[in-house]
Amino acid sequence: MKKILIRLSLVFVSLVLPVIAFAEEVVAGGLDDAYKSIGAALGAGLAIGIAAAGGGMGQGKAVSAALEGIARNPGSSDKIFVPMIIGLALIESLVIYALLIAFMLVVKVPG
């Protein structure tokens, strides 16, 4: 329990301190534009971060299962390898879609 609290506090500090360090004064755009840009930047960061984490875990499980199947039956490596590569490509395409959405959000950021 103590390790989880330490990790959560480190994550919190690593998310809050950069915001404070890079804070700027809001000029002509007003607070509405500032909140929109903060929301878009946060959305872009979360989109690519969550997608990359989920894609990495999915690819890890897929490769693990494929290698376990090959280890149990080495003769089936040809039948397992190609579907594994196709599955990895499909998993990676979802991460690339999240990257494109993150780029679209960043382009919409005013200023």
Q: What is the CATH-assigned architecture of the domain at 32-108?
A: Up-down Bundle
User: What is the helix tally?
Assistant: 3
Low-confidence sequence ranges? none
Give the CATH superfamily of the domain at 32-108.
Answer: F1F0 ATP synthase subunit C
* Separation of the first and last Cα atoms: 43 Å
Order of helices and strands: HHH
The fraction of residues in strands falls at under 5%
Radius of gyration: 21 Å
CATH topology title of the domain at 32-108: F1FO ATP Synthase
* Mean pLDDT score: 81
- Biggest sheet, in brief? none
Helical content, roughly?
over 70%
> What structural category characterises the helix and strand content?
mainly alpha
Q: Topology of this structure?
A:
Elements lengths: L1 H20 L8 H43 L4 H32 L3
Helix pairs in contact: 2-3
What does this structure look like?
- With 111 residues, the chain is mainly alpha-helical.
- The protein has a domain at 32-108: F1F0 ATP synthase subunit C (F1FO ATP Synthase), CATH 1.20.20.
- 86% of the residues lie in helices and 0% in strands.
- It contains three helices and no strands.
- The model has no long low-confidence stretch (mean pLDDT 81).
